[in-house]
Design goal:
alpha/beta; TIM Barrel; 9-stranded mixed sheet; two-stranded antiparallel sheet; 8 helices; globular
Amino acid sequence: MRYVVLRDDDTNALTPPEYLDRLYRPFLDQRLPVNLAVIPEVATNTTMADGSPEGYLVCKNGQTDLKIPIGTNPKLVHYLLENPDYHVLQHGCYHDRFEFDCHSSQQILGRLQHGTWRLMEAGFPRPDTFVAPYDKISRESMQAVARRFRAVSTGWYELRRLPFSWWPLYLLKKLRRNRHWRVGKTLLFSHPGCLLSYHRSLREMLDGIVRYSTEEHLTVLVTHWWEYFREGRPDEPFIEFLHQTASYLASHPAIKVISFTDLVKQRFPSN
């Protein structure tokens, strides 16, 4: 059996629930778990490298508050809670570019606690999985995250950013060419890039999804909801491809779509 974990990043207080339902209704109807990396209190002035607003602010609509907690959008919260196949992950705190690429233990702990509190304040269960904004996470942040979460999902791990006591396990992982590994009670997942992205052609996305889902024991499949609604307009071919992906995953007899919570609560499938 092959396992796939679908991770969608950047849901926040400005995300219209209609957008998520348009994307993921075919998954929900087939009881395929969707892991949403939710920004607990989104910063509204975050920009991309070129200075333009971050893509997940596509529905900012003139909002002037600098930070907006997820709980201020009760329609979105209610929608997520009434669909139990959505699984909420903690995606940083504010989604500032370097908020967890720092070395102040006090700041790191404060942001972790504040982010968890904002999610629980809105009515979500305590998250068991952490996703760092921009995959930027320092050694001090990694230590703090591992103490508070059962799983970490990121693009890659760098030796220089890991606690020294983790180095032997990391080197063993590298020798065995494992994509995923464990330190104590913490599961550490990586992914093969954002396979579902408008930056890729439909053919490239198809080839990547088929390859990884059938060849690897466990694949974390990453996408971003706002990429399907750039400039507020739906990208119909891209959305249709996502729905075809749902059909493919649901119908393939050797593939099972699971959540990070499944991995945390059950025995981790060995490589």
